């Protein structure tokens, strides 16, 4: 418990210094005015989406904007949603039950959400019985980065070069591009094709049951079977693409909130180090709020947006978007039926 409180304090101080320009906030600081100002700034932030291109095409882009304009979901949205060190912002990439593999584009300026592609075709996650699409609201924690240059001490593998993935388990089906305020419950250490890919389990603080769900053990109590289903889903979801089962550290055992908070803290520090790198290996650090060398003004923002097609109607799904359903029998994948 003491360790968990210390981690929350480290995250809180680090994020406030980065986002609000504070030179220092002492853990013993008695100035409530500073904390209240920062808390109000975080809590009153609201976000909307600005879509470009046609959904179901490679030209589709979803930008996120605040009252002040377009922001990067990778860099501009604060990690913390308040000053307690316990509530975080989550950017929703994929709503529950959907199949389109959407993700923050870490290589494009302002990091819009796009649909991932493979060999020029849009990616969709197949349904493997009894699951339908993603079984949680799936997204990322802003201002975090899994460092591909460092071996993770728990997994023995390097990071996957992306923001920290988040699985939100509340009752509400979120919307793509929505920014939720969540609290951390635990994490699963996925090893995806030899890379560390932490999956942090969270719950929307506005969920009716959120006050009763504070740690990994509470998930099994209030959502019986969900942890087992989570590990199963992560293990098998690539099998229909001809790939082997994914592996896990800790034999797939989910770790508790205290452990997960340390992962969040570490990846936030890696993100801060990323901003200082001269060579980011293709990752875009362009932002509109951090007041650093990569910050751009509205004129440059509009120039970036002008390169995208205007929003138009959704395109019909091509063959790769027609979802097949699969069932595992004795650990072997069998074709089940196809979407008409």
Walkthrough of the structure:
Residues 1-39 have low confidence and may be disordered. The radius of gyration is 20 Å and the shape is globular. The protein is built from six helices and 17 strands. A hairpin with a 2-residue loop joins β7 (117-118) and β8. α1 (2-20) runs parallel beside α5 (257-276). The chain has helices at 2-20, 32-43, 216-222, 226-236, 257-276, 298-306, and strands spanning 48-52, 61-66, 69-71, 88-94, 102-104, 113-115, 117-118, 121-122, 127-128, 137-141, 164-168, 179-192, 195-204, 247-248, 255-256, 324-329, 332-338. It has 340 residues and is α+β, with helices and mostly antiparallel strands. Strands 4-10-11-13-12 form a five-stranded mixed β-barrel. A three-stranded antiparallel sheet has the order 1-2-3, with helices on one face. The N and C termini lie far apart (52 Å). The relative contact order is 0.17.
List the helices and strands and how they pair.
Elements: H1 2-20, H2 32-43, E1 48-52, E2 61-66, E3 69-71, E4 88-94, E5 102-104, E6 113-115, E7 117-118, E8 121-122, E9 127-128, E10 137-141, E11 164-168, E12 179-192, E13 195-204, H3 216-222, H4 226-236, E14 247-248, E15 255-256, H5 257-276, H6 298-306, E16 324-329, E17 332-338
Parallel strand pairs: 9-16, 11-13
Antiparallel strand pairs: 1-2, 2-3, 4-10, 4-12, 5-6, 7-8, 10-11, 12-13, 12-14, 12-15, 16-17
Keywords, please?
340 residues; alpha+beta; five-stranded mixed barrel; three-stranded antiparallel beta sheet; 6 helices; 25% strand; globular; disordered N terminus
